[in-house]
Amino acid sequence: MPRTNHSTPLINQAIALYGGTFDPIHYGHLRPVEALSGLIGLKEVIWLPNNIPPHRPQPEASSQQRLEMVRLALEPYSSFKVDTRELEKPTPSYSIETLRDFRQEIGEKQPLAFIIGQDSLLSINTWHKWESLLDMCHLLVCARPGYQTHFESAQMQAWLEKHQTKQQEDIHCLPAGKIFLADTPLYNISATDIRARHKAGLDCHDLLPNSVENYIRQQQLYK
Length: 223
Ligand code: ATP
Fold this sequence. Notes:
Blueprint: E1 15-20, H1 27-40, E2 44-49, H2 63-74, E3 80-82, H3 85-88, H4 95-106, E4 112-117, H5 118-122, H6 133-136, E5 138-142, H7 154-163, H8 169-173, E6 179-182, H9 191-199, H10 210-218
Parallel strand pairs: 1-2, 1-4, 2-3, 4-5, 5-6
The structure holds adenosine-5'-triphosphate.
């Protein structure tokens, strides 16, 4: 893919996507992405709640409830947007297909990144057509406590080292193809733990925004 014109500023060019089940959205999603966005200088982060196909274990909250929680959590952030295309699809949400859709809309020169946590990086070779991901986007990886910082598999580690960049400018001046491991703050929070804490009647105010916590209570979720 061609490089963008170098006379344009090398910050705030890249658009990033961030997919997840968000059952519920929490500070382990919001804070690292906020830090990453500041660190890299992202133009926009588009949050994509996943549709879970009927044959997979279903989230506890409905699609509409997960979407509403994402909307509430993103309200304070002017550069964070939500996109419902995956939720509206009756078919599985394959990231590669969503990326293809975006790529068609934004053109082949626009720098595009996909944000994932370290746990997702370590299992990326289980994703549908994972080897084509870097043709479509960069990968921006947020640190996550409790997960190794390297692959067990020598082959996967070689793939990472081949594509890794430590130059954040690459994310803005190339349309796709690089992996950036970001030194984002660590939050030992998971949606699984939040659901379990709600079931046990434990407080979760430090783990997710008040607006989301109030919605969970009002909708009587995770009982
Ligand atoms: P669950 O516990 O239900 O599996 P989760 O908390 O891991 O959910 P998801 O919605 O499945 O959240 O994750 C979406 C993305 O967020 C993934 O790329 C995942 O790696 C990342 N992520 C989730 N929690 C954290 C965290 N605490 N720190 C960094 N990244 C995270």
